[in-house]
Specification:
267 residues; single chain; 45% helix
Length: 267
């Protein structure tokens, strides 16, 4: 997603780190929504279970088990999840004493060995709750292990590795979320069979093609509800929903509130 250069020394353990607070595994409630002021420190944030959407400047990022983010100070994270499949995440805040260019963008990396990632996260949480004299050192070592896992995953994939065919479809969906997207059309755009396309898309994005289309539409809907005075029915039509009630049901299922309640809460 973003260049690894500014994160290299952090991920490889060449930069002194110190933890801020206790690392935790959070089991998000159905009504959870992440929208906080700009961070004062680094936040290591790893999805262990569930599905959701994280707002990046380039567009919505589909969240699923194994997706890890390293969010630098100054960034303002924003995310929602599917209340029917709520997120479980591991989070650890830390300071990093760096020389040279500090990262200003969010690093995103999917880790394939989710059981190992989860084992590290739960062990770190257990250590943070203990009263052992070595607890802080153990937590820091485990956080470093997660960072190293992210680095090794990127090395395995190639720092710029990307599935170009899938990326083209993703860009097309983000550019025109109101289009009546169908798997057959997306597969043709990628010059793949339906089954090949579906497998590669889910491997790359962590969501099925149609789940991704819905996530993109509802992310745009969230912005329109907060940033404009357009009615719910007009927003639904703009996003390709001919049935406003169906739009409202999908919105409530993913965001935990009706569109009108979401707008009121954001004002």
């Amino acid at each position: 997603m973003y260049t690894i250069d500014a994160f290299q020394s952090i991920l490889l353990g060449d930069t002194p780190l110190s933890l801020n607070g206790e690392p935790h595994v959070y089991r998000c409630s159905p009504e959870w929504r992440w929208d906080v002021p700009p961070l004062r420190d680094f936040d290591l944030w790893c999805v262990l279970d569930g599905v959701g959407t994280f707002a990046l400047p380039s567009g919505p990022l589909a969240l699923a088990a194994g997706v890890c983010l390293v969010i630098p100070p100054g960034c303002r994270p924003s995310a929602v999840h599917d209340p029917a499949r709520p997120l479980t995440v591991f989070a650890a805040h830390f300071n990093a004493t760096q020389h040279g260019r500090a990262p200003t963008e969010i690093l995103v990396q999917a880790v394939r060995d989710v059981p190992f990632l989860a084992a590290l996260a739960h062990r770190c949480e257990q250590a943070s709750r203990s009263r052992r004299a070595t607890a802080n050192r153990e937590c820091l070592s485990l956080v470093r292990e997660v960072l190293l896992l992210i680095a090794s995953e990127r090395d395995a994939n190639g720092s710029d590795a990307v599935d170009e065919e899938i990326a083209d479809v993703v860009d097309a969906v983000r550019a025109d979320p109101s289009h009546r997207w169908a798997i057959e059309e997306m597969a043709q755009r990628a010059f793949l069979s339906r089954s090949q396309f579906s497998r590669r898309f889910e491997r790359a994005m962590g969501l099925s093609p149609m789940e991704f289309v819905i996530a993109v539409r509802l992310d745009v809907a969230c912005r329109l509800l907060i940033e404009t005075r357009l009615s719910v029915s007009v927003i639904a039509l703009r996003l390709g929903y001919e049935n406003g009630h169906y739009f409202s049901r999908q919105f409530h299922a993913r965001c935990g509130k009706s569109p009108s309640a979401f707008r009121s809460a954001g004002m």
